[in-house]
Amino acid sequence: MGKSRLEAFSDGVLAIIITIMVLELHVPHGDTLAALHDLIPIFLNYGLSFLYVGIYWNNHHHLLHTLQRVSGGILWANLHLLFWLSLLPFVTGWMGENHRAAMPVALYGAVLLLAATAYSILEWAIIRADGKTSLLAEALGRDFKGKISWFAYAAGIGLAFLLPWASQALYAAVALMWLIPDRRIEHAISKERGER
After folding, report:
1. Residues contacting residue 37 through CB under 8 Å, at least 6 positions apart
2. pTM here?
3. In this structure, how many other beta carbons lie within 10 angstroms of the beta carbon of residue 161?
4. Residue 152 binned pLDDT confidence (cut-offs 50, 70, 90)
């Protein structure tokens, strides 16, 4: 399998995830702005999850540009990532409907933590297939943003049982941190092209 097929499949799954999430936004009963009031938490959670899917899509795109060959391990690692991301519509809807409840907020964080872990496993699978001196291995370095994300998700899960709103703010802060483009892979690709 070529990496273009892997990327096309992943793009399709991510598009379906976004579609499922938007279908969870129900039309309000009423024709005034007040009718939208109850939908504010649901829409905010949709926006956060949409942002997360967009971040994963963007980073996945860059990640696959470093790929030299597709192995069975990479295929399974990619499916593992898509599995956790496919749970985002469910936890987004549950947290949106129960935004002040600890368990939905904690479960949302757990899905984010497991998706981040799955993304790291995919990175490791690519490095294993392409070698420790590969473009990706060089680009990742110590991966501070990834480590900060894991810590923040774990803290958010625990914090959900004390202050669910603070936990949600922490999840949003991680998304905003990743919204600032991570140029490590782009720099490594540019450097490699410049050396040729």
Report:
1. none
2. 0.90
3. 12
4. very high
